[in-house]
Write a structure and sequence with these properties.
This protein is α/β, with parallel strands linked by helices and 463 residues long. The chain has 16 helices and 18 strands. The chain has a twelve-stranded mixed β-sheet, sandwiched between helices. Strands 3-2-4-5-6-8 form a six-stranded parallel β-sheet, with helices on both faces. The chain starts with a strand and ends with a helix.
């Protein structure tokens, strides 16, 4: 899968320091970063006038460099700076700009506004004067661009540190993605996002952005068992397990079986139902993975089914009702397990496993570490956490996914990828991307079965 790292503010500072230690000066790096940003802004401006708001730090220094580059390209540029430069690199950038610098917003409308006030370095609300200046300039320009992170958005969390902060048309991340770029609520203010590379190396322990998987067609000598036999435990509400089975058939597994006490008349002819006692069905040594939870119910029989799956299956994906029933004592040691909770289920799991944390990402990481499971914490900003601390953030998926049954489809895709041979963390990331891409292709107001029907297209796009 393609990997783009997502850095905290401290990780970004350390990565930049590595470049400085290797001989690149702060001013040289500023020219690279701001020069790349200026090229994006030049294309957007298309000859129109540009107003650049510069702060006192190096984000403001980027603004002075952007202003100089745009002026050299023929744009009319106005620079506004409510504070004097406070770093050597920012002072040098202002000196090289050499043009007038206003302290206030002035009057009249403008074309393109560029926010270089504070960026990713700010972790507190803007003072009222700066917030008013930012809002005023944004309101009077047709297009709005934020450099690195919009001023007033917390880089490490995406928290909005103030009221009535402006929305931008384009946000240009410098060097690496930050958590704010992929986290609510801040990300909704960022518009389109583009990454400006500056030569940052890979950072050990960095989070990653879920990207398009790099999958392969079955080998020429493949057969259904080599591609992966997946068992799906049916329960009190068989419709959910049927949705998961439909998605799983489209996501790469070679053989999908419903493990049900009795056949259901709604089961399509291409889905096999195994009505043997569950313990006997799970004893099939060819079964690569088992999905348990969709439509399972929450009674004693459901708890027994979950315990049997965890005890006997080679790898387990746990979803829906099974997450509510899961207790630490049920988890076997050393077995690949993927849990796929939404926020309510994640809260239940955290209580069961004694995890005290706030926020989906922090809870998922803590739960994964304590339980040994890979945790796919699904929601409007989905993340995947592994017991060893790996973390992947999902790019935004269509909000049309907020309908009953789409979680069953996601669980089926994830279980299929596990059965096909991906480890639990990779399978979760693959499933998140395939699920989101299927939603994009399904359009508006789709049903879960229509979503599942688009999975083959997304799988084909990954080959």
């Amino acid at each position: 899968m393609s990997v783009a790292q997502v850095l905290t503010a401290s990780q970004m500072r350390a990565a930049e320091q590595a470049l400085f230690d290797a001989g690149t000066s702060v001013s040289e790096l500023m020219e690279i970063a701001a020069g790349g940003a200026a090229e994006w802004i030049r294309r957007l401006a298309a000859g129109r006038s540009v107003t650049v708001l510069c702060g006192p730090g190096n984000n403001g220094g980027d603004g002075y460099v952007i202003a100089r580059r745009l002026r050299e390209s023929g744009n009319a540029v106005t620079v506004i700076a409510p504070l004097e430069p406070a770093t050597d690199a920012a002072r040098e950038a202002r000196r090289r700009w050499g043009g007038p610098v206003a302290s206030g917003a002035g009057k009249g409308p403008g074309d393109v506004f560029v926010d270089c006030l504070f960026g990713s370095g700010l972790a507190r609300p803007l003072i009222p004067e700066h917030a008013l200046l930012l809002r005023d300039l944004a309101a009077r320009h047709r297009f709005r661009v934020a450099v690195d992170v919009p001023s007033g958005i917390a880089s490490d969390s995406g928290a909005v540190l103030g009221e009535r902060l402006p929305a931008f048309d384009l946000t240009l991340a410098l060097g690496a993605w930050k958590f704010a770029h992929w986290s609510l609520p801040g990300r909704v203010l960022m518009g389109q996002m583009r990454l400006v590379p500056i030569g940052i190396a890979g950072v050990e322990g960095a989070a990653q952005l879920v990207g398009r998987p790099r999958l392969a067609a079955p080998a020429v000598d493949s057969h259904k068992y080599r591609r992966g036999l997946l068992g799906i435990v049916a329960g009190a509400m068989p419709g959910a397990s049927l949705l998961a089975a439909m998605a799983a058939q489209h996501a790469g597994a070679g053989y999908v079986k419903l493990l049900a006490a009795a056949p259901d008349s709604r089961t399509p002819p291409d889905v096999v139902t195994d009505s043997a006692p569950l313990a006997e069905a799970l004893a099939d040594s060819r079964m690569a993975a088992v999905l348990v939870g969709p439509g399972l119910g929450r009674d004693d029989a459901a708890r027994d089914a979950l315990a049997a799956a965890l005890r006997r299956a080679r790898a387990v994906v746990i979803d829906a009702d099974a997450l509510v029933l899961l207790a630490p004592a049920l988890l076997p040691d050393g077995k690949p397990i993927l849990a796929t909770p939404h926020d309510g289920e994640l809260e239940v799991l955290c209580r069961s496993f004694g995890v005290i944390a706030e926020g989906r990402r922090t809870r998922a990481l803590a739960l994964a570490r304590v339980s040994g499971m890979v945790v796919l914490a699904k929601g409007p900003d989905t993340c995947v956490a592994a017991p060893d601390g790996r973390l992947a953030l999902a790019p935004p998926a269509p909000s049309w996914l907020s309908v009953a049954g789409t979680g069953d489809v996601l669980a089926g895709i994830a279980a299929s990828r596990v059965a096909a041979g991906s480890d639990a963390f990779a399978a979760a990331c693959e499933a998140v991307w395939l699920h989101g891409e299927a939603a994009r292709r399904a359009g508006a107001a789709f049903t879960p079965s229509q979503l599942a029907e688009r999975v083959p297209e997304t799988l084909a796009a990954s080959l």
